[in-house]
Structures are given as C-alpha cells and as structure tokens.
Amino acid sequence: MNINFNKNNDGLVPAIIQDATTKNVLMLGYMNEEALKKTQDTKLVTFFSRTKNRLWTKGEESGNVLNLVDIKLDCDNDTLLVAVNPKGPTCHKGSDTCWNEVNTESYGFLTQLENTIAERIEVSKTDPDLRQDDKKSYVVSLFDKGINKVAQKVGEEAVEVVIEAKDNNDDLFLNESADLLFHYLMLLQAKGFELEDVVNVLKGREKK
C-alpha cells in the first residue's frame, strides 16, 4: 500500500474500523507509519493516540481488542478501512460502537421488513383499536389466525413459486417468490426466531 502519510502535517491518516462480519463501522482512529506496522505485525489494531501522544493498542487495558482481518486503502491514498473481529465492546463507554449502536448483522431491506412485521405485531398487542377487524393490518390478521395458518400460507406460496418456475413468466415468478419470502419471515416471527438465526445455521454448515 502506498499510503500518503505526508498529506497531513502530523503524519497521521484516519483509520475507519469496520466489523468484518456485520460491516458496521465501530470507531474512528488515527495511524502513523509505526502504528500501521505494529498493527500488521501483531494483528491487533494499534493507533497513534493524539491525547496520549504515543502508540495505543486498542484493548491494552480493557482487553477489548480489535483482531485484524484486512486493511484497504482509499482512492486518495490517505484513509484506511480496517476490517476487524472485535472482542467485546469497542467504545470506552461500553457500547458496541462509538455511536452507541448495537453491532448486529443487517440484511438491508429484509431486516427492515422483518422489523416492520415485528413492530406491527407488538403495537397491535398494546393498542386495542388495532384489534378491530377494519383496522387490522394483513400481518396482524394472519397472526391472529395462529401459527398453523401462517405455516399453511408459507406452504401455499411455496407451491406457487414451484408452479411459476415451470413457466416463462418472470414477473409472476418473482412476485410469488416475494410472497414466499414475506410469509416465511412471518413464520420465523411466529416461531420466535429471526433471519439471523437461519443465517447462523448456514454459516455453521459452511465450516463443516
């Protein structure tokens, strides 16, 4: 890597710390050439502390180290993206990130959809008005019919996907696939699980 440590007068470059698994940004630190070399040699992320005016290995006191996975350099050669496997919370205040966020894996829109399903079910439990048939969302209505009905709906949508897969109408196939995925997320909620639980099973199989 051809890092431009001379771009700033202090010889430091920003180091963005990212969880290698969840892809969440955990913190921002600064490295000079010596800090980078120590990071690469020890595989433990080390910064140059501007307040302590010395090298500082993250977790040297708390034990909450950042295990190095990879380092990438940006297009201007003056910022590092450091992928890590964190051990314990990253922030000195005890949170997972320095933005007080929970460091959980996100699956983009699918996670948003999963959260929406969970929220509608939870809100309907606390708001009596939403129990009225004319105000119920589709999610609430289906959940009210019980897990057997939710599971049955998943089965029906799965059959529809198989049927459309045998034809040449891509639009119908994709729409039925979306219906299947949506109802499967509902079934996971009904069973008390989340998409992450299924992903963890798949990850476990990959290691075997």
Q: What are its keywords?
A:
four-stranded mixed beta sheet, 208 residues, alpha+beta, elongated, 2 domains, Helix Hairpins, 6 strands, Ubiquitin-like (UB roll)
Description:
The chain has a four-stranded mixed sheet, with helices on one face. With 208 residues, it is of the alpha+beta class. The chain folds into two domains: 74 residues, Phosphoribosyl-AMP cyclohydrolase (Ubiquitin-like (UB roll)); 98 residues, Helix Hairpins (Orthogonal Bundle). The model has no long low-confidence stretch (mean pLDDT 93). It is built from six helices and six strands.
What topology emerges from the helices and strands here?
Layout (H helix, E strand, L loop, with lengths): L12 E7 L5 E7 L1 H10 L3 E4 L4 E4 L8 E8 L6 E7 L22 H18 L11 H7 L2 H19 L4 H21 L4 H12 L2
Parallel strand pairs: 1-6
Antiparallel strand pairs: 1-2, 3-4, 5-6
Helix pairs in contact: 2-5, 4-5
